[in-house]
Amino acid sequence: MGKYQKLKRAQILAQKDEERMSDVEALSEESSSDSEDEVDKKEERKESKWINRERVLVFCSRGADFRARHLMNDMKAMMPHAKGESKMDKSAPMNQIAEIALMKNCTKTIYFETRKHKDLYMWMGNISDGPTVKFLVNDVHTMKELKMTGNVLKGSRPVLSFDATFDKEPHYALIKQVLTQTFSTPNHHPRSQPFIDHVFTFSITPNHRIYFRNFQIVDETLQLQEVGPRFVLHVDKIFSGAFEGEVLYENPLYVSPTASRRIMKQKKADAFAQKKQQQEDYKKKKIKIEELKDEVIEDPVGEMYDTNLEIEDREALGIMKVLDGRVTKRISKKNTKLAKKNKKAKAAKANRVAN
After folding, report:
1. Which of 98, 78, 76, 79 lies closest to 88, judged by CA?
2. What is the number of other CB atoms lying within 10 angstroms of the CB of residue 78?
3. At a CB cut-off of 8 Å and minimum separation 6, what does 263 contact?
4. How does strand 132-141 pair with strand 230-239?
5. Which one of 1, 42, 113, 287 has the fewest CB atoms closer than 10 angstroms to its CB?
6. Same domain for 147 and 262?
7. Are 110 and 225 members of one domain?
């Protein structure tokens, strides 16, 4: 009987444990369902406010140098609505970028293309209908390189500031719209913060280039401190489609980096050739001077102005006598004056000694 009672007690305890576990699971399911409902409600609220669903794909080509990669990472950090992608092969066609962006559910794209491991180009365009703008990027300074005093909250929304020149010409107005749609963070984006504490400035320089800078708004007095990065964009072409299509605008002032390097190389070669020519001319001149020194040249000036020649003309002799008489008179007058001065000086000295 003792063994039977022990088995019965063990069964009763096991049943009680199962009942407790079932109660705990029921409570946990109720709490999890409540929490899931709350999360779903919050997401629905966010989605109802998040109307602008712009997403920007930011990536680069293979062979990009360290400066291009750091600039790309800075752009991703500045834009909470940006997405990354692995590097694209240089041999791939440009219209493949639109397919990659559609797969990533992005509407805008910033593509950094590096050529010859030193020339950086930025392609910025709209995937759906275009246009696409091709820039040459110069004077790149990243955040880590500058080490500015400004500091902004990650994910905060920026204010976009444009130069007044953007509204004067049609191609600048089109570029302004592309920059606005790409760099502006959508309102109520899930990865953004509900704060505005920095400014993206786009200004046009006198040499027709777009200068980008990022400033922090310090306080209510609207004092600015630069955060970085900073770079200069030189417009090359504007295409009608997404990384393809007709050329809507081509900058007549644009000079490719290869052409500019060729011009600089030609200038250096011309300067070197000019220097060599000057050296050769100097050597030839020096040789001529040495040859002239060795030659004996008769001096006709000495014969014309020789004072030891005898004068045969009577008029000339008379003139010479008159001139000689005048000269002797002047000399005698000077001598008499000097003698008088010397006598006076000696007399004055004698008087001083006597006194």
Report:
1. 98
2. 23
3. 255
4. antiparallel
5. 1
6. no
7. yes
What pLDDT sits at residue 42? Answer: 56
Tell me, yes or no, whether 239 lies in a domain.
Answer: yes
The β-bridge partners of 109 are: 57, 125
Which DSSP helix (H) or strand (E) runs through 142?
Answer: none
Could you count the other beta carbons within 10 Å of the beta carbon of residue 82? 22
pTM here is 0.66
Distances (CA, A) of 90 to 83, 103, 117, 241: 20, 20, 12, 20
Q: Both 127 and 88 in a single domain?
A: yes
Whether residue 68 is contained in a domain is answered as yes
Domain span holding position 181: 56-254
Whether residue 140 contacts residue 71, with contact meaning beta carbons closer than 8 Å, is answered with: yes
Residue 92: which H helix or E strand, with range? Answer: none
More confident residue, 225 or 308: 225
For the stretch 180-231, pLDDT in tens is 999 998 888 888 888 888 999 999 999 999 999 999 988 777 889 999 899 9
DSSP 8-state assignment for residue 296: -
Q: Kindly report the backbone phi and psi dihedral angles of residue 259, in degrees, each rounded to the nearest multiple of 5, phi listed first.
A: -65, -40
Nearest residue to 114 via CA among 133, 97, 136: 136
* Residue 202, helix vs strand vs coil: strand
Q: Is residue 173 domain-shared with residue 279, that is, in the same domain?
A: no
- pLDDT tens digit string along 323-352? 788 878 888 888 888 888 888 888 888 888
